[in-house]
Amino acid sequence: MPKMKNHSGASKRFKVTGNGKYRRYQAYGKHILTKKSSKRKRGYRQSQLIEKCQEKTLHDLLPYS
Question: How far is CA 54 from the centre of its chain?
Fold first, then answer.
């Protein structure tokens, strides 16, 4: 049986925390920033944990992380 590989797109977008949860970065913070408030843009800089319902999917995409 061939060795499983991480999904390269997912491995660039998600990181595993020390507790085994997955971190993601907020969308909408890269362009068209002139109409967004400073408070809103500051919030986009923070990373967030993924939802509980997505953990199994991500675990299948990233078996070696």
Answer: 11
Per-residue b/e over 45-62, b at no fewer than 16 CB within 10 Å?
eeeeeeeeeeeeebeebb
**Pair 14, 58: CB distance under 8 Å:** yes
- Put simply, whether the predicted model's pTM sits higher than 0.85 gets the answer no
Structure tokens at 26: 């907020």
* Residue 18 reports pLDDT greater than 90: yes
Instruction: Specify whether the CB–CB gap between 47 and 26 falls below 8 A.
Output: yes
Domains and CATH numbers, the chain: 8-61 (4.10.410.60)
Question: CA 62 to CA 8: how far, in whole Å?
Answer: 9
